[in-house]
Design a protein that fits this description.
alpha/beta
């Protein structure tokens, strides 16, 4: 049986790795970073779903097969859901994980949110599947936890060194990739996608 093609509408190599590793071997997985001539899709949406839809539909007009787009980030209750859709660029351009984490810690301190119960947060991932410019499915995964007082661990990316998932004492930056593959927001959304795609 010939390979089916799935194009990942992201240039984030960490996301590409996380998503591609979960696809069955019968699929050929490629990312927009490796395809010349594709447009840069501006994330102008107010929600994760809106941004993922923009990317999935925009790229699917230029490549064959299914296109899978992810938009994800950290929602902190004490900050009214921020950084949210601005997670990657929270501290401005050029983007920097270190600056984003620094700003997040500073804002929580300014709010007086010093205890774990005052720093409740969740990672959210929305996946959108499109083909020929039209959305055909979407999936939403979350993992609840809290923002730690300081960074720990060298794994992962973004806010991983600050996020401690419920039921654990270590941050996403310290937990193994095997554990994250079961409990993360992206893993949960991908499980829904894989169940859906298996029925096609």
């Amino acid at each position: 049986m010939p390979s089916r093609i799935l194009t990942l509408a992201t240039r984030n190599r960490h996301k590409v790795t996380e998503l591609a590793e979960q696809m069955p071997p019968s699929w050929k997985v490629q990312s927009v970073a490796n395809i010349a001539g594709l447009p840069e899709i501006e994330e102008t949406g107010a929600t994760f779903l809106a941004n993922a839809t923009l990317k999935a539909e925009g790229i699917s007009r230029h490549v064959p097969g299914l296109v899978l787009a992810d938009d994800s980030g950290l929602e902190v209750d004490a900050l009214s859901g921020a950084p949210g859709v601005y997670s990657a660029r929270y501290a401005g351009q050029p983007t920097s994980d270190a600056k984003n984490n620094e700003k997040l810690l500073k804002e929580l301190d300014e709010k007086g949110a010093t205890q774990p119960e005052q720093r409740k947060a969740r990672f959210r991932c929305v996946l959108v599947v499109a083909e020929q410019g039209k959305t055909i499915a979407s999936f939403d995964g979350t993992v609840e936890g809290h923002v730690a007082a300081e960074l720990s661990g060298s794994h992962g990316f973004g806010y991983d060194p600050l996020f401690i998932p419920d039921g654990y004492t270590e941050s996403f930056g310290s937990l193994s990739s095997e554990i994250k593959a079961h409990i993360s927001h992206r893993a949960k959304a991908m499980a829904q996608f894989l169940s859906w795609v298996a029925r096609r």
